[in-house]
Every structure is written in structure tokens, then in C-alpha cells.
Amino acid sequence: MVPLLQVKNIKTYYGNICVLKGITLEVHQGEIVCLIGSNGAGKTTTLKSITGLLHPQEGSITFGGEDITFLEPHHIVEKGISMVPEGRHVFSKLTTLENLEMGAYSRKDISAIQQDIEDVFKLFPRLKERSKQSAGTLSGGEQQMLAIARALMAKPKLLLLDEPSMGLAPILLESIFENVKEINAQGTTVLLVEQNTKLALAIANRGYVLQTGSVSLSGTTKDLRSSEMVQKTYLGIA
Amino acid sequence: MMKNNSSFLKNILDQKAFRTVLSALISVIILSIPLFNFPQQNLWIRIIGYAGLYIILGLGLLVHVGLAGMFDLGFAAFYAIGAYTCAFLASPHFDLHLPFLAVILIAGALAALIGTLICIPVLKLRGDYLGIVTLGFGEIVRMLLMNLTDITNGSQGIIQIDKPTIFGINFNNSTYFYYFIFALIALLLFLLNRIIHSRTGRAWLAMREDEDVAQMSGIDTSKYKLLAFAIGAFIGGLGGAIFASWQGSIFPDNFNMNVSINILCVIILGGLGNHFGVILGAMALIALPDILRGFSDYRMIIFGLLLIIMMILRPQGFLPRKAPQFEGKSSSSPDHEKEVQS
After folding, report:
1. Is the residue at A76 inside a domain?
2. Residue A50 lies inside a defined structural domain of this protein
3. Are residues B112 and B104 in contact, defined by beta-carbon separation less than 8 angstroms?
4. Count of Cβ atoms closer than 10 Å to residue A169 Cβ
5. What angle in degrees, to the nearest 10, is found between the helix axes of B257-271 and B128-147?
6. Which domain holds residue A49?
7. Do B213 and A92 touch (CB under 8 A)?
């Protein structure tokens, strides 16, 4: 089967500094795939390369069989890749509802947007209660929910999540990850970048371990969990 | 005491009815100044008309700074480009005498073109960097005007610029310019209001709130930045052409950095991001010092004091931006649909 997203040996630079030294990964339709690794391993850079915020100097990225390596971000959104950036970026002066509408900016099927807003409110009932409130006044967890909901409003085939756990209370963490599972169950493929390795491995089907810009290990989450290296480095076991 | 004042002022200024009455009142006062005879009428026409010119410039800069969130410290450059275009095309300097409506449109278009060109290399820059680049650009333009003596006549400036004739009406005194300026302001306010509530306006809103997220929401930020810069520069060019033909003579020093800063102050005082606030800002900042001229030496002290009091009582400006109210149901909002389909 042709993978939904195929990243082939990409090398991405910040100026002269080579951050991704040839990353290869694929995401199949319907999967949850996680990227794990420590700070500076290149997880976020990988996501930014996929969404077109950065362009790799070598290698290629194909999405649904189409080369998207050098497309601009807004075209990539239209192709069906939506990203939730790290650190709960919301339009803080706009209301929750306006944030969601902004998320649907790239869409042409205006008539369906209202229904989709109802759908994301079903997924995150808390946001419905806050729909008229400006996003800056939401709690951290609610802002993370809103950031995810806004990304969903673009009707992505592939959702990229960058560190959804960052700075969240443990109790919220689990509910956010439940939401991710539910989003996936409803048909959206997910590529998840996460430092909380344990949680990430718990919900993903497969995973890639990134170390200083290259993939050091990959496989099903079961394999990864039993790998001694992952246990030692990321799970803190033995 | 100050707290009370502040909330009182805030309450009044935020009332919709009050705003309507205020804008009606200001319009009536502005329109009636040339109609009645009173002492020093010509002086008043010049003062308020000049403030009107700054309203136009303020609206242009507002597109850059207030709407698109692009910091611009060199707006006088576009003003200068508009003014010199007018001077080249309608004066004995090159012995060209094009009709004013053509001149003003060319002036705006040229400013827009140069604005777009200057914007291309700085598309990736944000915040302060853009401010520095535009600051430099403003000075470069002034230096060129000063030193390209063969073309611009250097510090001698260009004189005897044609008085406009529109539809057979010869603009032979300030009253015509006065009405022309305020008619243009009305038109610009109407158009800007339309843009703010369009798809473009929402893209700008998203950009100035959070550029990364705007990009990830599928907004072509480069396109909308260029568009904002072009529109703002166009308006600045219009202002320049009006200034040149009204003054009749222009010099490079009419467009120094103080002008850029003054325009910026106008929109900040008016409440950054609100196009109606610009009117109050220009009246307070540009007209007031002249109105206070009667107090001779004390006027700048009074003016400074007023500014300080103002900034303490209402730091967000007279009429700050309200977050635009999107209709709750995006699917049923006709405006919404129309914009997306177009």
C-alpha cells in the first residue's frame, strides 16, 4: 500500500547548521505514528519540514502520492495536512468560536463548516461552554483543546501534533490523549511528536526514535517498548 | 479619583450611541467650517484641512501597522513618492501638466509599486526588523530626493506645482482642497471598513495575532503582507499628491523622519487598529498645536501635558480596536459566503 505520507531522506538546515541528517519515515492511512526523542533531536523540525514552514535541501516528501516538498504552507494545508504547533498557539484576542472559524479559512465548502464546528464541540464539550470567551482567557488545557480543534476545522487527512502534553496537568494529559485517539478513530491519520514517551507509545501504532537528526530506531510501539535502548533512555526503566 | 475618571471616560467612549453622535457631530463641524463667515476662517480651513491630510496618511499607515501588524517607521517615504510624482507630472519642472485625477492615481500606484518592492525582501522579517528596514527606507528616499539634484532639484525643491482642475472646477483656494480631502477620507473609511470585514481583513487579523498559526490555518501570509503594504503605500501616495498640489511647492525636508513618527503617533493616539480613531488622533495631534497657537510660548507645554494626561487616562488610545464580531453562524452569514466564493 502506498503510504499517506512518505518522507524520504530529508536534510533540513537552519542556516549552515544541518538539523535533519536524512530522515526517512512513512505514515499510513488511519495510523497514529509517534516521533519520540530528546530535546534537539529534530522532531519539531521534521514537522515544520512536512508543513512547508521549512524546506529541506535534500530528499523528498510525498503526500497521497503527490510531491509536496517545496509547497508553501497554505497549499499544504489545502492538500489536507494540518498542524497543531507546540505551546498552545491560539489567537488570544479572538473568541473560541472565531478561532475555529479561522481554522476553516482555507476551505471552500462553507456550508459544511457549521456542522464541523458542532462536531468539534462534541469532541471537546468544554469549548462549547467557552465559545464566546476570548481564547486568551481559557485555561492551558482548554487552549490546547482549542488548538487541536482549530487544526481539525481545516478537515485534515493528516493531523500533526507537536507536543500536546507540554505544560499540562497530568489529569488533562490523559483526556487530551483520549481525544487524539478519538480523532484517529473518526478517520484522521495522526503524526504525533511527544516527549512523554510513555503516553505516546500507549496510543500510537508505530513509532520512530529520533536522535540528533536521524532515525535511530523504528517499529511498532510494542517493539519500541521492549527495546532496551528506549526503556533506558526514554522510559527510565532499568 | 483618576481611576473614576478613567472608567467614566472609558464608558462614554465605548458607548455605541455616543460614538455615532460624536462622529455625526465631528462631520457636521468639519463640513460647516468653510460655510460660515467667522474671523480667521482661512486659517481654520488650513489647520483642519492639514489635519485631514494626516487622517489620510494615518489611514494608510493604519493598514500597515494596525491591520496587518507590520511595523513601519518610514511611511513618509510613500508620502514623498506621491508628492514628487505629482510634482514631476504637473509642474513646469519637466513641463508636464497631466490632469489631476490621473496624477493622483499614478502617484498612488507608483507608491504602491515601490511599497511592494520594498516589502518583498523583508517578507520573512518580523517586528522590530521590519521597523528598522522601513526606517532606513524612509531616510534613503529623503536622501535621494535631496541629492539627485538633476531630477528632483535637491533642496531647492520643486515649485509652481499646478493647482488641480477636476470636472472643470479649478482648485484655486484651500476650501476646494478641504472638501476634496474630506470626501477622500469618507471614501477611504468606507473602503477600509469593507476590507476589514472581508476575507482579506480576517487574514490580516490572523497574521497580526499569530503569524505561525495564520500560516498553519492556510493563510498565504506573503500575499497578504504584500497586499497590505501596497494598499497602505497607495493611500500614502494619494496623500502626497494632495499635499504637493495644495502647497504648490515641495522640498525634501517636508518628508523627514518626524513626519513618519507623527503619523505613527496619530494612529497610536487614535487607538491602534481603529480607522475612526485616526480622525480623533489627527485632530488632537496635528490640529491642536495650531489651535493652541494663541497661547504662544506655552502651547507646547499645554500640548505635552494634554498628551500625558491622555495617555494616563486612556493608554489604549481614543477608540481602540474592537475584535471584529464574526457572525456566530459562519454558514449563514452572507458576507462570509460572498467573500469566499469570490
Report:
1. yes
2. yes
3. no
4. 11
5. 140
6. 5-80+156-233
7. no
ipTM higher than threshold 0.90? no
Closest residue in chain B to residue A79, using alpha carbons only: B218
Flag if B209 and A94 touch (Cβ within 8 Å). yes
The residue out of A149, A167, A189 marking a domain boundary is A149
CA distance B19 to chain A (A): 23
Where is A199: in which H helix or E strand?
A: helix A197-203
Specify whether A74 is located in the same domain as A99: no
Q: Are A102 and B222 inside 8 Å of each other by CB? A: no
- State the total domains in chain A: 2
pTM above 0.95, yes or no: no
Helix (H) or strand (E) holding A62: strand A58-63
Tell me the pLDDT of chain A (238 aa) as tens digits: 789 999 999 999 998 899 999 999 999 999 999 999 888 889 999 999 999 999 999 999 999 999 999 999 999 999 999 999 988 789 988 999 999 999 999 888 888 999 999 999 999 999 999 999 999 999 988 999 999 999 999 999 999 999 998 888 888 888 899 999 999 999 999 999 998 888 899 999 999 999 999 999 999 999 998 888 888 888 777 5
In a domain, A94, yes or no: yes
CB pairs under 8 A between A and B: 85
Chain A residues close to B201, C-beta within 8 Å? none
Return d(Cα A108, Cα A103) in angstroms, integer.
Answer: 12
